User: Fold these one by one.
Assistant:
Number 1:
Amino acid sequence: MNPRIVSALFLLSSMAALSSCGGGTTQPTPVPTPAPTPNFPVIVAAGDISCDSATPQLPCKSKETSDLILTERALHPALVVLPLGDLQYESGTLAEFRKNYHATWGRVNEYAHPVTGNHEYETRGATGYFEYFASVGVAVGARNEGWYSYPIGDWRFIALNSNCGPLGGCTSGSAQYRWLQAELLQNKQKCTVAYMHHPFLSSGQNGSTPELLPIMRLLYENNVDIVLAGHDHLYERFNPITPDQVADPAKGLRLFTVGTGGRDLYEFSKILPNSAKRYNESYGVLRITMKDLAYDWSFVNIAGIVVDSGSGVCF
């Protein structure tokens, strides 16, 4: 055999022997790059928010609840803020919106998609509400309507006006019902949230809103996942339920009342069936992390304590 070939083979066998005895250099095992954590959008919601100048004796914690939203904004750039009506007491005038609401929740107007409450209609036609949000560039629907919808990712958001009286009713023949029916028929998003001011069901002192039954049936029949409201100044969550108040874990509506935005707090009156969690000890916001065909929720009070939490799936 060629002496050079013999020499090369000897060298290779020697290197292998050294490596097997720990004298060689081993290559490190590659560390796989971790998959990026999805930046899921986060909903922050509450209603019944800002006091007016004539009631300085009230707690008025709208600054503290808006601070919670700013904290969420720092953690989650994809933020959706849902002010759930009765945003400015007592009458929702433009002057009070500019003086009080603007200084607190107005700091997150860039992310806000509000609905109107009954106190806004203490000013004829809720003109203070519509004029304020028009002045800061926030879309809130047509002035004689107040309902609208929009997509964010795979989620659809439907903002409703639950002030049935000023609208001429919330029956199946009403303008809002017909609009909602068409909206739901063409909805292609995987998950759907509807929100309004008045709760369909509530164990609080204001109680339930049976006038909303036709709308709730429409939401249920079209697989809406979550329904948010305010009006009663407390936090309440219902287990998934049908419009006829029958438990339906498979495809029921998950109802939240979040009237803890800052004005004052109410007592619970009559505890309704399927009411799963109730809290009225402090102010706070509901936080919902929007996932693919699922969501996580938590109610956080102004001390930063998580009072209620859980998960759900979209239908």
Number 2:
Amino acid sequence: MSSEFDIIRDFFTRPTRHTDLSVGDDAALIQPSPDTQLAISADMLVAGTHFFTDAAPYDIGWKSLAVNVSDMAAMGAQPKWATLSIALAENDSHWLSEFARGFFTCADKFYVDLIGGDTTRGPLNISVTILGESPQGQALRRSGAKAGDDIWVSGHIGSAAAGLAHLQGKIMLEKDTLKACLDALHRPMPRVALGLALRNIASSAIDISDGLAADLGHILHASAVGAEIYFAKIPKLPALQATVSLNNGHAGFEAYALSGGDDYELCFTAPQQQRQRIADISRELDLKLTHIGNICAGSALTVYDAENRAMVLQKSGYDHFG
């Protein structure tokens, strides 16, 4: 039977890229680059709450780090270091090997060093803390949106929530659409390159984890502004929109696109004069960026339907205690 220290050595000790002292001591030693600020974030994934207990361990490994990398993207920060603490019900070498493979595949893609953490016995629970760097004073925040700014989102919205709904038996998706939605759910792609490109361009930014309406609402609260967005402009997979509308009616798809969560795309605001630069960034990154509305005075979020009527939102987004 492997010990806790065997698990750390065998599955979670890897060469590092930008770390002075990594896994194996009482603490890691890192040296931030000159003239930068550290961005620090943490997320916890709990079996039965954030993923099914029988989910593929590779996917759990990828997602546990990816959701943290996404926080760095939203701040316009370059992710660099992470710690991992994990509670395991049992010492399953196959599960650990696949989890570590997913985790380090994500770490390698975004040049993140794993520099420490902890392991213990208990119900499956994964906690990651991530650190990144941004040039002094250039981090993207939620609090900079101004009346008149455009509101943008990256990628497609609602796919992950629809994938979850399929797994829960609420809707049935066709093969190709299902694959796209399950990829969005299990292996979200943090928009780090976009976050870095938006420094000195975006006035505010956030990643969409709890639902577009809820997360945009955080920007509105932090910036003391309101917003008007147009449901028809929210980018969705066309085949997904048709399938969900057929199964649940128009209102069903509104729930996925506005409050479904787990997209890990970026929602950001920018002055109107930045539209051409944002179009250039979209082309340079080969990433769909869509203008969905505008910041306005006030404090409310209003969503308009295709007939330009204000929609009544049943739920704004995911809340662990809601």
Number 3:
Amino acid sequence: MNVQTFTPQAFHRQAHDALGNPQIRSNFRRAMDGLMAKRRDAFGDWDIETLRDLGANIRLRALAKLPDLLEQLEANCQANGIRVHWAEDGEQACRIIRELCEARGARHVIKGKSMVSEEMHLNDHLEAAGIEALESDLGEYLVQLNEQTPSHIIMPAIHLNTEEISDVMHDRTGTERTIDVDYLTAAARAQLRERFMAADVGISGVNFAVAETGTLCLVENEGNGRMTTTVPPVHIAVTGIEKVVEHLRDVPPLYALLTRSATGQHVTTYFNMISGPRKPGERDGPEEVHLVLVDNGRSSIYQDNELLDTLRCIRCGACMNHCPVYTRVGGHTYGTTYPGPIGSILMPHLMGLEATKDLPSASSLCGACGEVCPVKIPIPDLLVRLRKEAVGEGRGNVEGAGVKRDRKEVLAWKGWQWLATHPGAWRAGAGVAGKFRFLSPSRLGPWTDYRTAPKPAATSLHAMVKQHRRKLEREDEK
């Protein structure tokens, strides 16, 4: 199988390739239109702005108390019988999980959906140690069969249509080639059911970790999360440190925002609350439950009063669904674990700005991402800040910041800035540009590969308005 490798450094080439692939554009356009419509309908009878304010305040309050809440979470989890492990980075988190698996002699791991595990490349780490890690979320299962990475944080295989899914399953598992969705779903369920029963360890993500009660909340639709966390003898939950919330009462508003923003559902099929391993007398559940809390650059983000807002994210994917750039080029184009608008403000901190300097500019700054974010992350403002840091004009708090622009470009923008802040000079310049508009270049570098070069108007809008007003005044005098 010819597996394509995507990197953030090659964003422009990958975007060009995606724009030239009508199948990718069709798959994403159809999927995103449906998701936007479902979200709109799901919030139809709600005071959405009040709910968004509540969600934002809950997340801000949790982040303001983050160090204390993490200690409280650890204490209450341990009181419930959950063993807590701390990981400074992804490598340490992988090592902790591998050692837990090896301590049980595990050779087969079944995984629920977890973007943090994608972020730390956990599957590759386990397989290098001789431990098979199989994804149980249907979308994750399909991209794993296809030797790809997820293209969306909620719907990993959204880039594939039914025919492509059928081909993948036929080539890798021997199912019939068909567009019968029920058949394909049933075949995948049968394939995975055996693996649940044979797994030595189950690994899951966490949507909300409640400090007050030491409870781990998982949101899902397929039941694979419940199977992953209850059938194997050991359950390992892995999450970023920012997922903690203070009280159990904070969960319902965030859950309402998450489900409606992500898939347009009022509730998901399953909502799991895990508060410990199997107790004496109980008939099911794991013998051990472990929680791995992963930093991996989050503490650095936490120290910045503006970029701290990035940690509010509840991973709903709404910003991607409404982004005109993501919708047209797809998730793989970004070459990062988290694509789209949220990835463009998060990945520079996880990978360094030098490696991801094109991502903050992968936006039209239309503001749609900020308008639909359920916890009101000011994504457009953060994109602008990272753009400045990418060219050495920002605060420079992101690792790898300070990439220098061409001197001519710098002078050109400085000149533009001066003109735009001096009205008299602007009017005079506009008049001169209008008179000599025939000298305007027809090419402006790669920008005009897909656009017509702009030309100054012969008459400015202000001049046209003045002429129109004088004409009306003359007519009134007559």
Number 4:
Amino acid sequence: MIRQIIVLLFYISMKILYVLFIIGIFYVLVKFIDLLTYTRTKRRYNLGYFTSRQSRTDNMYEEYYRSTYYLSTHLSFDAVIHDKGRYGEYMIFKDLQTYENYGARFLFNCYIPTQYNQTTEIDVIMLTLNGIFVFESKNYRGWVYGHEKQKQWTLTIPAGNRIQKEHFYNPIMQNKSHINALKFIIGNNIPIYSIIVFSNNCRLKNIRASDPMTEILSFGYLKPIIHYFSKQKPNSLTQETLISIYNKLYPYTQVSEEVKRRHVEDIQTKKMRT
């Protein structure tokens, strides 16, 4: 009986040792695989596989915080990319930023006073020696219908199995009022071009402007249009005049929160009256 018990215990011990041996081998294999993975990952990291994306992000941030847009607006990069309107303005600037190399100056969110003791906000102004470009940014998505004489335009947006429609104020009229207020400050002797910029996610349905100094376009056509307009009246401004206008308008980009609040209230009041 005792012998049988001893044999049984020996058998159980061998089984336990066998299981421990298998577990040990498995553990060693796992550690070996981890080591190989770590070595490969480290090698790829050193070669730049995992740093390239971070590097691009860092460069994007650095580019933004060194830009005229940030130095003027003081808005964080995250605040801009998560705001559809702000991001549209920034993309206009970014697309035309090279004009700064030729003496151009940019102004953003200009709260220009009007004759009605209110303000009108201009998204982006680009001052060049060949004229002034006033941009109205519409960073929308969908199909846009409208006529230059219609007060309200329509934006249609696919929403599942139905079409959602939204209405917005005619941007040609909107930018015309901006330019009229601007002329009251800087005069009428300078060519001013009205550029209404929709995102590439918009499809403009046969929208035209009769004014030869007004253009409605998708973002992708921005550079060619600016190049075309720049040839119409070259050297319309001297560098001294350009800087003088910039200095005159810049304070309107640095208004108080109270001015901005009243501006929003005036817009809401107008909407309620229409």
